[in-house]
Design a protein that fits this description.
By secondary structure, this protein is α+β, with helices and mostly antiparallel strands. It has helices at about 10-25, 35-40, 50-60, 65-70, 90, 100-115, 165, 235-245, 300-320, 325, 330-350, 360-375, 375-385; strands at about 5-10, 30, 45-50, 70, 75-80, 80-85, 95-100, 120, 125-130, 140-145, 145-150, 155, 175-190, 200-205, 205-215, 220-225, 260-275, 275-280, 280-285, 290. It contains 13 helices and 20 strands.
Length: about 400
Amino acid sequence: MRTTVGIIGAGPAGLLLARLLHRTGIDCVVLESRTRAYVERRQRAGMLEQGTVDVLRACGAGARLDTEGLIHQGIELRFERERHHIHFPGLTGGRTVTIYAQTEIVKDLVALQLDHGPPLLFEAEAIAVESPGSASPAVRFVRGGREQVLACDWVVGCDGGHGVARAAFPAGTGRTYAHEYPYSWLGILADVPPSCEELVYARGAGGFALHSMRSPSVSRLYLQVPNGTEAGDWPDERVWDELASRFAVDGDWRLERGPVTDKSVTPMRSWVHEPMRHGRLFLAGDAAHIVPPTGAKGLNLAVSDVRLLARGFAALHRRGSTELLDRYSELALERVWQATRFSYDMTRMLHAQPDGDAFDRRMQLARLRRITASRSAAAELAANYTGLPLPDDVAGPAESPW
């Protein structure tokens, strides 16, 4: 097989890149090791920045998003049994965020790809990226028990932190910066209407809690738990009781309970791989960076990465210019590090620190008080949460791949 751009991984990053390239007239092939059913049911992020929504609409994947997505005007911060609303449009010039599950984005993009897009091969496991530093890289993969080779002009790894793309960087050509947090998140899905209209970030006596949703009838909630916690350690009743305690406020609000349909534990970590390119191999999304979910940046960073790549490939296709591709790592990392900083700050501000003391707790409270008392501090949070500008200024409208 031969193509212009070989894409490893059919998560949102790989699928969106394929969609953008297809609309530009650039041929590509997407290799995905899992089945379609597995890919379409993976539970991941659900909060979309304004820029992510705009990209999905522009590439033709906004129909269900516009009818089923839940537009949020802000978030609520809870601490010391108080409620504080941060109103995004008034602080950002009208920007909002949208709740729409990553599983649904994947379903939308898969359907578009299979209906009228470039090849998308499920159960095609990439096992190596060969000669990434040459003009003729290739991806070796196994499908149906047979080893095959996808010859490419370029390769984009959207295959996560444990994929073959990042492993193909020769020794000494990259560096990973990492931070492990001393706690995890216990997350549940529950068949119960959300108890709040918008996301709630709570700093309770027992630690952090987040109230989110997937739809008007499905709630998504999280608890800070110690590292090493197993989901089975927390019976449903214990989860609901602890959530109710951490969300508690003075007033008549109460947490609605319902059947728990899914329960899992997510470790909290940050890491960034530099650079995000070696030769003709690019990294995008989780293959290049991971952030804790506190700031809701993971999916949105992946979209930012592939939008940059799509513009770069469009410039090469239309004008023969490699300038944007050559600057990809530099431009992407600027946004990656800002999102990493924001996620780190949110995480440190809201979570109980296992090794913290009374001074640390007072500093957390001081940060929260500053945000809720100062318009400029609230505006800084809102600007980061709704999404820093995508790097569109690196290419004019003529370069847009859609």
